[in-house]
Every structure is written in C-alpha cells, then in structure tokens.
C-alpha cells in the first residue's frame, strides 16, 4: 500500500471476438495456425506477409496475454501496476469496410466497457484504484465522419471509457485530411483523450528494401519506422492547421511522440523559413501557433521510451514539466527474453528510466507513474 500509484496508459487487449475475426481472414491482418501445432501467429505488418517467409514463421506468436484479461491482471500484480487503461492494439478497425465499421466499433467498445466493469466489481477491497479503464476504438471506415463523431459521443456515455485510440492514417488519407474535422470537433466537444498510435511504419524501401528488413527482423520497422510514422503524422496534422482550428484537442502520443521532441525545433525553423505553402497554385499561410505551444497545450507523451535521454527529451519538449508525461508498458508486446524471467525487461527498463531521470524528485516520479493519468483521465 506504500509508494506512488502506478497507472499503465499504454497496454493492449485483443478481445476474443476480434481474435476470431482475424482467424477467419486470409490477408493482412490475420492470424495463422501453424501446421506444426505451434502457437498461432499474428501477421499485422505488410512486411511480415512475404512469400519468401514460410507462413508458419510470419508475424509473431500470439498467446493468452493478448486476449485473456486474467493474464493482464496477473501482469499488473507482478509489476506493481495499480490500474491499466486498456486499448485495442493495431490495426484496430482500419481494415473494416464501411458496411461493418460502426457495428464492430460498438461491439468492441461495449466489450471493453463490460470487461472493465466486471473486473472492477471483483477487485479486492484494498485496491487503491479501480483496476481497469479503457480507450475506445473508432469506426474510421464508416461512410461519413459524422458516424465516427456519433460513436465518440456514445463512448462518452460509457462509464469506464476515458478516451479513444486511433492510428496515424486517419481515414486512410492522413491526419491532415479535412474530412477529419468533424472527428476533431467531436473530440473537443466531448473532451475525450485521443491516444495516437503508429502501425504502418515506413515503406521497406526507406530501410533499403524488403531483403534488408527481413535480415534484421522487426528492429527497423519497430525501432525506427513506428517513431517516424508518428512524427510525420503529427507534423502533417500541425502543418494543416488542425491545432489552430481545434485548440482544445487533447492528444496522447505513443512511444513519447516518436522523434517529435527531438525534431520540434527543426520543424519550427523550417516552417519559419517556408512562410507559406503552395496549394492549388496559390499561397496558403502555415500554422499560426508555434509547435512548442502545441506541445505544451495539446500534446501528452507516454513514457515508453526505454532510456533517460528520451525521457528527458520528452519532459523538455513538454515545457520542462513532468505534468504531461505518463507511464506505459506496451504489454503484451516485448515479452521476457527468457521463460524463466519473472519480470519483463521492457517494463523494468521504463521504470528505471523514470527513476534515474527524476531521482531527486519524488513528486515528479509520482506524477509520471500515475498522478498525471489519474488527473487527466479522472480515474480517482
């Protein structure tokens, strides 16, 4: 019962219905059952679905940690986590066509609400916080942005949902797509947090081609592709004036914003020298607010960064305050390297980075570990 409260805001769940849907598919994303009886394989990256890779070796193994909420709770207990804000993992519902998008979003969100409610009703009386909350998912393939906004307003009525998770492509046209304006407005109106998470990375050619990507496994697309995907997506959103039109947006960026904290100054300098953008033969004025103001007003960063240099950059980009950085684990990805390991190295590394970055400031550590999430998402 001692020590700061710990809230994991970056932790994923594939509900059983979602798993069954992926098993029924034959193209990315899909789940394959190997012929040798090994664990099912989840193929969610296009680079994994390569004819040069035997189908039984594509993707990554999927065990009960992906869908069994009891495994999630055991993981929390093992790592001292009081509360988790669970969310559907990539690729969410990006691949669902307009006929079924809204139906599936409602089903997933209702499942998340039910899972949280049931878990919290059986929690030990000594629990310092309710164990589970959730970020809902959006029907981005719905026929109109209005249908997406409708689901946002419905999510607001679900007691355990505190925001939504979304990928960086929006409705497949990027986050600078003007058709997303009704979604940004609905997020402002509901004041729900948007958790922005990468999925598609960069084209294989950015790393030297498919052969180079295969040579090094998932290192290039995950270590470099994901962070740069986030940086590019948010920069396009910023350049198009989204934060000028919707100044009350609240967005949490996965993996500490990718490379945004490091590159923000360069982005700002390039905008200042560009002055106007060429659109349809005319001049369009760039964003009115500087990027540092957006980072201090609209953007929050998770602490899934695995080192003190990244942690300090996240704090510096947030205006030098620890009020905008939130602890996360990225469970169930990056599991222990050895079966006998009791703790997950990925989680221990994040804990260590927080401790080392703020070792002289217990209040800062408490804010990053849980206090910020409790305040921002109203979890108390």
Automatic annotation (TrEMBL):
Coiled coil: none annotated. Pfam families: Amidohydro_2 (PF04909). SUPFAM superfamilies: Metallo-dependent hydrolases. Residues 7-379 form the Amidohydrolase-related domain. GO terms for biological process: secondary metabolic process. InterPro entries: ACMSD, Amidohydro-rel, Metal_Hydrolase. Belongs to the metallo-dependent hydrolases superfamily. This is Amidohydrolase-related domain-containing protein. The lineage of its organism: Eukaryota, Fungi, Dikarya, Ascomycota, Pezizomycotina.
């Amino acid at each position: 019962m001692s020590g700061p409260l710990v809230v994991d805001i970056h932790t994923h769940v594939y509900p059983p219905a979602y798993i069954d849907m992926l098993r029924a598919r034959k193209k990315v994303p899909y789940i394959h059952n190997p012929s040798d009886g090994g664990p099912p394989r989840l193929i969610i990256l296009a680079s994994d679905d390569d004819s040069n890779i035997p189908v039984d070796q594509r993707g990554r193994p999927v065990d009960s940690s992906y869908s069994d909420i009891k495994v999630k709770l055991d993981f929390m207990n093992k790592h001292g986590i009081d509360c988790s804000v669970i969310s559907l993992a990539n690729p969410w519902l990006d691949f669902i066509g307009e006929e079924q998008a809204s139906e599936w979003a409602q089903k997933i969100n209702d499942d998340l609400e039910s899972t949280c409610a049931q878990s919290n009703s059986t929690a030990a009386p000594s629990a310092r916080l309710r164990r589970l909350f959730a970020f809902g998912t959006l029907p981005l393939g719905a026929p109109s942005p209005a249908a997406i906004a409708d689901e946002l307003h419905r999510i607001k009525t679900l007691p355990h949902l505190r925001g939504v998770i979304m990928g960086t492509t929006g409705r497949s046209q990027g986050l600078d797509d003007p058709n997303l304006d009704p979604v940004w407005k609905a997020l402002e109106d509901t004041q729900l947090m948007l958790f922005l998470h990468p999925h598609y990375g960069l084209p294989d050619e950015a790393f030297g081609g498919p052969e180079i990507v295969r040579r090094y496994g998932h290192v290039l697309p995950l270590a470099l592709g994901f962070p740069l995907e986030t940086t590019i997506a948010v920069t396009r959103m910023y350049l198009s004036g989204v934060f000028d039109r919707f100044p009350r947006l609240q967005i949490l960026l996965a993996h500490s914003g990718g490379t945004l904290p490091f590159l923000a100054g360069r982005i700002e300098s390039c905008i200042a020298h560009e002055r106007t953008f060429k659109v349809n033969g005319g001049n369009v004025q760039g964003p009115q607010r500087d990027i540092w103001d957006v980072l201090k007003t609209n953007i929050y960063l998770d602490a899934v960064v695995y080192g003190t240099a990244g942690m300090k950059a996240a704090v510096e980009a947030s205006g030098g305050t620890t009020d905008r950085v939130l602890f996360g684990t990225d469970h169930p990805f990056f599991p222990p390297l050895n079966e006998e390991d009791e703790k997950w190295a990925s989680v221990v590394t994040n804990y260590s980075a927080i401790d080392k970055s703020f070792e002289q400031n217990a209040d800062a550590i408490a804010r990053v570990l849980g206090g910020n999430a409790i305040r921002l998402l109203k979890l108390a």
